[in-house]
Design goal:
This protein is mainly alpha-helical. The protein has helices at about 5-45, 50-75, 95-104.
Amino acid sequence: MGQFSQAMAEVEENLTKLLTEISRIRHYIDSLEDENLRLKRQLCALSDAETERVQNNANLIREQARENLDKLYTEGFHVCHIYFGEPLDGVCLFCSAFLHNEQD
């Protein structure tokens, strides 16, 4: 076997070892990701009572935000994303559309 052939055989052997190690590491990473996902789910698991409390709180916040926007609009300020907070002169179609969509 010539010197070049021997060098190629060594490179192939090293490459095979590297590919085996990469495969082992890839499986290890997959198992870590699965474990991480399982732990995240476990941390985020809420009881039905806690879920209902969170949903009720979110609904309350949504209602308060809606009331605040209605109040701002009634007091003469834009609530649309284009002119938000600027004084309102007449009727703004953007604000009206936004407030109408919020009610649905």
